[in-house]
Amino acid sequence: MPKRTDIKKILIIGSGPIIISQACEFDYSGAQAVKALKEEGYEVILINSNPATIMTDPELADATYIEPITPEFVAKVIEKERPDALLPTLGGQTALNTAIKVAELGILEKYNVELLAANIEVIKKAEGREEFRDAMRKIGLNVPTSFIVKTLESAMACSEEIGFPIIVRPSFTLGGTGGGIAYNRQELVEFCTAGLDLSMTTEIMLERSLLGWKEFELEVMRDKNDNVVIICSIENIDAMGVHTGDSITVAPAQTLTDREYQNMRDAAIAIIREIGVETGGSNVQFAVNPVDGELMVIEMNPRVSRSSALASKATGFPIAKIAAKLAVGYTLDELTNDITKETLAAFEPSIDYCVVKIPRWTFEKFPEAEDYLTTSMKSVGETMSMGRTFKEAFQKAMRSLETGRDGFGGDGKQLMTHLDQEDLESGLRIPNSQRFAQIYEALKRGMGIEELYTLTQIDPWFLFNFRQIVDTELEISKKGFQGLDSEFLRYCKERGFSDKQLGYLTGTTENDIRQLRKKEAVTPVFKLVDTCAAEFESYTPYYYSTYEQENEASITTGKKIIILGGGPNRIGQGIEFDYCCVHAAFALREIGVESIMINSNPETVSTDYDTSDKLFFEPLTREDVLSIIDQEKPDGIIVQFGGQTPLNLAVPLAEAGVTIIGTQPDAIDRAEDRKRFQQFLQKLSLRQPENDTVKTLDEALSAAQRIGYPVVVRPSYVLGGRDMRIVYNDQGIKDFMIAIGGTTLEHPILIDKFLKEAIEVDVDAICDGKRTIIGGIMEHVEEAGIHSGDSCCVLPPHTLSKALIEEIKSATRAMAEELGVIGLMNVQYAIKDNDLYILEVNPRASRTIPFVSKATGVPLAKMATKVMMGATLDELGLMAEVEISHWAVKEAVFPFDRFENVDTLLGPEMKSTGEVMGIDDNLGLAIAKAQIAAGSHIPKQGNVFVSVRDSDKKVILPVARALVDLKFRIYATKGTADYLQKAGVECTLINKISEGRPHILDKIQDRDISWIINTSLGKRTTEDSYLIRRAALDYHIPYTTTASGAAALVRGMQELEKNELSVQPVQYFT
Amino acid sequence: MKAIIALEDGTTFEGHSFTGHGEAVGEIVFNTSLSGYQEILTDPSYTGQIVTMTYPLIGNYGTNPEDMESAAAHPKAFLIKEYNSYPSNYRSTKPLAEFLQEYGILGVEGFDTRALVRHIRTKGAMKGIVSTRDLDKEALVKKAQEWSGLVGQDMVKKVTCTSPYGWGENEPVAGSNFETAKKPGEKAFKVVAFDFGIKYNQLRLLQKKGCQVQVVPARTDAKTVLAMEPDGIFLSNGPGDPEGVEGVVDTIRELLGKKPIFGICLGHQMLGLAYGGSAYKLKFGHRGGNQPVKDLTTGHVEITSQNHGFCIDESTLPAGEVEVTHINLNDNSLEGMRHKKYPAFSVQYHPEHAPGPHDAEYLFDRFIDMMRAV
After folding, report:
1. DSSP codes joined into one string, A734-770
2. Among residues A328, A346, A343, A347, which one has the least CA distance to residue A2?
């Protein structure tokens, strides 16, 4: 029986901003679902607040609501659109939780909307700890001894029976937020208090700890006829105790006999049936006792997940697409396997390679946070690689991570040689982000597998494979360059050694090894990902490289362009760049040019085999990319869309003779090299903040004094604002120098005049080499000094004069033309006392391209691709700048709640993981929507705590007045209170923490404060203000750390008083 | 130790042995199961074959005494991408290399197994040879060509038991089983199982479902079987070409209609021949644990474990007498049938799994129901 005809219009809920535990995998699944349903002729309505997604492209769904994903907004969309059905299983936990709340509000019933794939009972049965445990017992499966409690007292009582260590998991939260492993009563109190607070249902589960058990996941699919298939098994290298999102994982499972695997498969099938997921994909997690094989069910997610995205990429089976089709009534045996074309979706993929996923952490951004991995996820991205051996796949994944590593070891990096044995062992015992460097060190020290197993609980099979890599490394060192005959070279490559590692280990260079390989004909071949281990012919050109005999790559002869993707998500480089790469592929398709994508991030749309004409799932390193270029001989390569990753490759690739299309690497260098940039600006008579480049402490001090404090300091060799600081005095310079490595440095540091209280502006433009069109001018809400990625910004500018806007436009045009930009360019300006300063020019796609495109309806990345292929803007019909009459506001989303002990202050170093967009005809409402979408509750009444630094007082005065008008009561600390009272604003004095109790923290803990405005100087200057901000975060009280941010929010609050929030599809605005 | 793999069409590969010296000629086939190499090795149906695993990493969990599907390992040689010599599993008692050595099976690793599989997929299953002793490729190709192959050969006689046995506590027990295994107060169905190369899990499952099983040699005649007064007759899997098997089809024809019959794999093919049908050789067979089969009586899809190179030709079955009950969704080939008049049904695949999914275990219940209904 084919698809249902009784439903016509389907609402899909997306997953909102990128946060830890919910990244672009849900854009991948959502975009697939929208396409699949459209293909079937359904009218698709979408709600997602994240403008950087492909799924919110206006041409994808029939109506796309870039609105906050809250029950209230979803209700508004339902009321307006009257869909027949709601599909809640493709937008992660956010969509599922929101769907539950919408149902509970009675909205679905009221408007007669059917929940597809999983109804409320199913979701509750899978997600509610107690219901799930009971369901498992009913079908004879074991779950760890556990208790569900709603209070701290009962938690303490249950702990006796369970025994320490105890895992604490709050119900209904994202990615296990707030959970942890308590080893004693005190820790139990801490975790329970936090967990009860975070749980949507004030409910936590205490559970027997299965530390040291092996962890597995199965991806299951079911159709309405009760056909069930397993798409993929995944084994976690890290034993139980580390969140699966933070575990290095391998597909398929490696250490299970068939008997154990089939028992697990039976259990997964029984679970999906018992829970009652009607159609679609689910993920089931298991623990296996390595001593006796005892099987425990850990959890199941009745929806597509990060793991299902991984499984799709690992096997070639598009889980989300098939899930969408099953949801509308198809059965697995009615759907074809896209890859083989002749066989059906009713089968279980078999793979003939090994897949390794490694998470990418970002502890360096949060130095105050302790680097431990627990049951609460902390990584911000991941990379995947494929190889014919585990060793090859693992080493490829290590270099795909783009953390500077060239493999497991043998690259002289991330060395742990300095650790004494005791510290090393403690690192091995307690999972952390450096663990694999520590295992490498332990193996180098000759520690045995059994000993390492005892410490790490990592299955000996993996440890043995690691040891084989280390043994090979030693052999390479011993043999040296002369010893690299073709046989041994091939052997090393089969074990995943990169040219860089081989160069390092033999005292030669990457290039020497490359030349040697070419001479000895040791070059990689490309194998197909075909879902079936070669049993059937496959038609989808999805490849990975390996060192084998047969090359399966089919070489096409038409015009073709390679697009380099962005690699694993990290703070500063994420979905926005993937969006641009995907658009490049779409644009090439539109003009009949073959697109070839190279990327290593399994979460993305760019690594969907549907996106480009050919997909290479490969590390983005010079060696790996050149291998593909040698093979494909493309007409050109696009490096300006994937963020910093491809840019770093631009020069080495150009040197190797590759044609880079669009803006040339020299233009990038001209914008990045200090000296050349200065000359460039001088030529155009443009201004930049006074600056200097220095190498020693003395030089730094004299430069800073000459320029005048405050200054912005940063090392010249890092990107994305790493280690960037605003410094106010000599001591600050000294601290900075110590922090980055001493009084005399190898690489220079850059010192810029910091423009206090300046307005920052971001501009995206497109240039065809002759003409430049401004895509969008975004005015930051926060003043200059806060990383642009962390700022809230408004498009079009809301306070700038016409003259200033014209000046910005002409400066942008002049720079684009002078640089010879062909494609995209982003400029960051600061405006101080009506003077325009150039802060930064990036002749490439920026993070804001998707936001601007969504706000204005101009597909900048697509157009830029066509421009790079030789079209003019005239030919593309982009004759003039698009003026919009609505407002689009971008707000950043931060991961502070994931990291204990971290301050929430914003600064020059980017900390946000994602962004949302608020769009409305009314500026204040657009601001309010952006805030709501970012997860802030906008206070409607109550007490506002205000404590600001002197320089912010004049900005905060009107804010305080407005708050009083809005019937809020203001609490302020001494300085602020004096200032406000003097200006006639009524407020109540409250103690700072250091002034004795009762103080502000008491008020926060009593939940007597509904908004906190607290600004402070750059660093964690006073312990006081830090404690207040952290308490705000921990108690989920809205807080604002900039005066301008507070002003914007008040504007939103004022408009909310006067207007009802309404929803409009993005198609309405553009 | 260098090893050469040579095919009858002249294709060669170079790997190395991980089990010492050896030379073996056989039919080269591939299996796409991700796990279960021990069960595959001990399945007598692989007699005369050289088995290639498509999954590249083999040996990971070692071998153990419980996962034996017969008393020995049967393929001529075992070809894999990478042998993992450090088994990790609580049940493992012996690394795979030692296990293979114990049964004299040549194990070869370190070559492009996917290329070999693609070759077989395109050109069809073919004769091949693996050797560490003779590294002359031309000579090896010639030896492969000279080998008789499996078509028309009676491979069953090489693996069937020589005398009857019963099934005890997870192991064969010589002699008659019908009286001893009966549990007090329980009606146990007595099943005579023809051993064409039977897998132990068929016996384990029959026992689990409440049957007493008496295994008999392939050429046991109908009179002897009927004299045992069984409630049902089970026809096991086995190696090779059904049309090469001597002295069995007539026996089955004699038993048809007298007792309920359930056939698996070769047993299914023998039943097909007894119905009057004929078999043909598949291009490269079905071997793996992910084959989708549709039960035409329920519309349900099951994921099955398969291992066969021959198939019953649906068009040769007597019209009106035999009903097709299962088909393979990959190639629509015949996977199951039932006789319309007599209590007899069979499947081409392996409902006893081991290795593979458990989806089709219900067929054993159908057999029980059939015996109960008589």
Report:
1. HHHHHHHT-SEEEEEEEEEE--TTPEEEEEEEEEESS
2. A328
Interchain contact A527–B (C-beta under 8 A): yes
CATH architecture of B156-373: 3-Layer(aba) Sandwich (3.40)
Indicate whether A672 pLDDT > 90: no
Sort out which chain A residues have CB atoms less than 8 A from B289's CB and list them.
Answer: 258, 348, 350
Query: Is the model's pLDDT at A502 over the cut of 60?
Result: yes
Complex prediction ipTM: 0.97
CA distance to partner chain A, nearest, from residue B275 (Å): 30
pLDDT band at B170 (very low <50, low <70, confident <90, very high): confident
Backbone phi, psi, residue A89, to 5°: -100, 10
Asked if A354 and A396 count as a contact pair (C-beta separation under 8 A), the reply is no
What residue ranges of chain B are covered by domains with CATH 3.50.30.20?
Answer: 2-146
pLDDT in tens, A418-472: 999 999 999 999 999 999 999 999 999 999 999 999 999 999 999 999 999 999 9
Give ranges for CATH 3.40.50.880 in chain B. Answer: 156-373
A349: closest chain B residue by CA: B290
B2-146 CATH, one of 3.40.50.300, 2.60.40.10, 3.50.30.20, 3.30.70.580: 3.50.30.20
CA distance A254 to B78: 19
pLDDT(A175) > 80: no
Question: How does residue B183 score in pLDDT terms, banded at 50, 70 and 90?
Answer: low
pLDDT digits (tens, 9 = 90+) for A1015-1030: 876 554 556 788 888 8
Strand ranges in A58-156 using DSSP code E only, listed in sequence order: 63-65, 85-87, 114-115, 146-149
Closest CA to A48 of A916, A861, A929: A916
Beta strands in chain B (DSSP E): 2-7, 12-17, 23-31, 49-53, 57-58, 77-79, 82-83, 106-109, 126-131, 165-167, 172-174, 189-195, 211-217, 232-235, 261-264, 279-295, 301-312, 322-328, 334-339, 344-347
Partner residue opposite A225 with nearest CB, options B57, B117, B300: B300
